[in-house]
Amino acid sequence: MNHWLLWPPIAFLLILAGALILLRGLSVFSFPAKGGAMGGKRKAYACGEDMQENQGQPNYSQFFPFAFFFTIMHVLALVVATVPVHDWSAVQIATGYLICSLIGLFILFRR
Predict the structure, then answer these.
(1) Positive or negative, the Cα torsion across 103, 105, 110, 111?
(2) Which of 37, 54, 80, 81 could form a disulfide with 44 if both were Cys (CB 3.0 to 4.6 A apart)?
(3) Which domain holds residue 9?
């Protein structure tokens, strides 16, 4: 690399400096804080009503199985779709991956 601006650390620092300049420069257009330094900008928002504390505690216990299913199925589709048909060993590997994925999904959703 002949040009010093293209070195990754230098480019990273330049982009970081540009982002910080934009952050400070565009803060002029943001709404002013009411009641102190940050006011209500850091308070929880609940459809306009005042909340003393954040009472909404999301539960992600039902989200994980669906996210895992989504990920496994997309990776499985990618692997099966990109297997060369004429290579028998690759077809065997993809079939084994398919069987293992189905077993994993069966274990995930059995209750």
Answers:
(1) positive
(2) 54
(3) 1-30
